[in-house]
Amino acid sequence: MVSALGGYLGFLGLLAAERLVELVLSNRNAARAFARGGVETGQRHYRVMVVFHSLFLVACGAEVVGLARPFPGALGMGALGVALVAQALRYWAIASLGERWNTRIIVVPGLEPVTRGPYRFLRHPNYVAVVLELAAVPLIHGAWVTALVFSLGNALLLRVRIRAEEEALGAVYAQAFADRPRFIPEVPRG
């Protein structure tokens, strides 16, 4: 039988493997965007973002093991549910963007913004998934310090990231998403 700690550390290992697969996909899609004339912005904060997200999974495990955090029962199961919803939202966003998804800010001139999938309801579904994930994954096993520190750090990082992304996407993006909220979805009428 697997202990709660063993299950949690295994879950973190799966998330780390998933991130590596996402980086391979991101690099492939970025190369395609560059081949079609894509222009990258936001390189300075990108390095910070990579380090930040790399440390996140390490911090989750380190707090649980180092501070002997107990499994919080129903709260942990609820947090697992939120983390799984975040993963589903992430993959819905990735699938909706298709070849255009990557972890950088690369704009290919002349392409219209993607407005299908979760983008019908809000501007930044992938960032909503990240917000949910950074709060929920640590709380699965009671790592509340990691949840708090990385959620606050992510808020600061997203402030820079979203500003840079929306500026790079320009007026066509602003017009296409004028009626969509950034984070809290609204169901369109009609």
Give a quick summary of the entry.
The chain has 190 residues and is mainly alpha-helical.
Which consecutive residue ranges, at least 5 long each, have pLDDT under 50?
Answer: none
> What is the overall number of helices?
5
Task: Please indicate the percent range of residues in DSSP E strands (runs of 2 or more).
Answer: under 5%
Largest sheet: 2 strands, antiparallel
User: Termini distance?
Assistant: 51 Å
Form type:
elongated
Overall pLDDT: 93
What spatial order of strands do you see in the largest sheet? 1-2
The amount of helix comes to 55-70%
The helix/strand series, from N terminus to C terminus, equals: HEHHEHH
What is the structural class?
Answer: mainly alpha
**Radius of gyration from CA coordinates:** 18 Å
Number of strands: 2
